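COURSE: Structural Biology Practicum
ASSIGNMENT: Worksheet 4, Part C
STUDENT ID: 0417
INSTRUCTIONS: Below are two proteins. For each, the amino acid sequence is given first, followed by its structure token string. Answer the questions at the end about the second protein only.

PROTEIN I
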Amino acid sequence: MPSLQDEEFQLFRRWLYRSAGINLSPGKKALVAGRLGKRLRHHGLGSYGDYFRLIMAERGGGELQTALDLLTTNETYFFREPRHFDFLRQQVLPALGRGRPVRLWSAACSSGEEPYSLAMTLAEALGAGPWELVASDISSRVLAQAGRGQYPLSRAEHIDTRLLHKYCLKGVGEQEGSFLVERRLRQRIRFMQINLNQRLPEIGDFDVIFLRNVMIYFDLDTKRQVVERILPRLRPGGYFIVSHSESLNGVSEVLRLVQPSIYRKP
């Protein structure tokens, strides 16, 4: 297996920044080599430079999307950072749901654990009341996985047992060892491929936007551009939620801090 040379790493680094706004640190060189190495073997290529030239020659082809998927997929799990779901259930939802659908956007949904966690929270709090949930990611591969809503049972450890039994089906036979989010809940989520570093499609306005565990990969200028692009989609009085490891300090002058990682639009 060829090694990833520094100049080759820089090619991928600059391309990923242009394409997705992700600023890879030098410490991510091994990650890039590991995730793309299988594609070199698949195509029988002798170097990472050859693979880079292959995806650039496609100009939007399937292999370019595969490379983008491999380099932008992040680890996630159900009900990650549970205080956000507590805040949503206790502080936000009781004041909404009167006269119009409650709308939430999971703006970097990865393989679906976050939007399904949100969907369970919404279903519990609002019952049959109207609500809508948009879930987006730049990766088509993880969106396909999210749309299926099927996960290994080991991924269920952070789901409350009552919610697991109410909203998920345990696999049997060939599906043993997995669980499936029930169809009624899956159908309430609209999964979309959206690049936050490009002009956003018409997706309407939202009461709450979750943008968690993605801006840690952006430099300050990219963070400002992404937030400026998203903010018009947040309704006045709406909440903008980032991860506990992130902050909008110096990023936005519009949003007001409610508590660490939770902001509100005046």
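PROTEIN II
(use this one for the questions)
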Amino acid sequence: MAAREGGEGGIAGGLPFSKARCIALVVTVTGAAFLNTLGVQSSVIILPTIGRALDIPDSRQQWIVSAYNLTFGCFLLLWGRLADVYGKRLIFIWGSVWVTLTSIIVPFVPNEIGFDVLRGLQGLGAAAMVPTAIGILGVTFSPGKAKNYAFSSYAAGAPLGAIIGNIFGGLLGEYLSWKWVFWIFGILAAACTVAGYYVIPRPALPPPGAIETSAKKTVDWIGGTIITLGLVILLFALSEGNVVGWRTPWVPSLIAVSLLLILAFGLWQHHLETRTARAPLMKMSIFKNVQFSAANVIMMLFFSSFNNYLIYATYWFQDYQGLSVIQTTIRFIPTGVTGVMVAAVTSQLLSRIRGDFILTFGTVMIALASLLFALPIPTSTSYWAYAFPAMILAVCGADTLFPTLTLFVAKSLPYEDQALGGALINAVGQIGRAIGLAIATAVQTAIMARKKGVGVDEIGGEGVEIQPWDDALKEGIRGTAWLDFALGAVATGVVLVFFRGAGKVGGKH
């Protein structure tokens, strides 16, 4: 009966159940963030190996990663609402079961299309786990120290998954087989499933005589379809734009269609909320809270910058400096170590320091990290003089900003919308990553084309050969770093304007 007595919501002012079980719960749901970034990063490292094994050309290998990211980003909102309606525990467990099965099956698929489809199905399962995990933490722990620890630990899961994913994919791909990357990933997801079954509390029974309104138990399938289609089209167009060229007629056409669908979704949600008794997928009235809207803008800007920073730092080490996968992986180790340490410190700061101070610190850190790669520092400069501090600064920003924003969202939304809030903040971050990468790639390509004296369409083609220590490549990567610096600076500006004087996010209500 312990699980049911704890229920969703916990005990005000204390732990919802035993300390050991609370720790096990936090570790289990943190597994969602950890597995998500592990699945992406470990695949990035072995892309060339998979390409050779399945005879996938270089130009299409990016879909091994993009297929996963596409379904993950597009189904977050729908899964978040389903979790709030049918139970967060149920959706989390079945999502992890789905990830387990698809991960085990993926290496057995012998062709490119089937492989990409299975990768997309993997992302579908992850999209069920991530917002549900945030929702579980939001409703299980009462505001206070325990909740701060929980959200800070969850925030550490993503950078830890990224760094372990690099090492994990590199070592297994080099010394065993690329297939084991997916099989071990499936084993970890299975462990998450079993742990979730035992430690995630069942929903508390409603009090005797309580009547749940039918509106709260409905899912807006029309809205879910519209927004999912809109996001699929948008992220697909952004992913393919840099591959086929932005002047390709169907790319801007698809972006226009996606924006119209997203607008239609907003109008439909407003209609349901104001003109009917049916529950919308997302209450548009929540955006009347200016700080809530600003929080989503900050999330988008920050993760546009942070994601670009990680990707182009990888290009700097591998493509420009000509380092091996293992050598590059070693240079990213500070991000994982720093992530764990900063998460522990942040859990203590959330109830002691004002939210605007923490958010300002986070956005300034990613701006400074990008600046260290943007400045014309001599290429002979030691890694320890610029890249090492940049790695630390970037993760200091991510692991202070993310728990602060997720806690703010948890406090801003009612009990029944906690998983949807987690879905929204992650979806915004995912869209920011896609838009930021599309702009960064266009910036890099334009700078390299100017330096080479060729057309933009020729960069990356057979006629333009790019070798390590190429000046055009150096300037192109530094150009993207200036973009990332600007994104971080704008995010800082949004914090200073809309969060000025904000209280302690981690305090009790």
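ANSWER KEY EXCERPT:
Q1: The chain has 19 helices and no strands.
Q2: The chain has three domains: 1-205, 220-280, 286-509.
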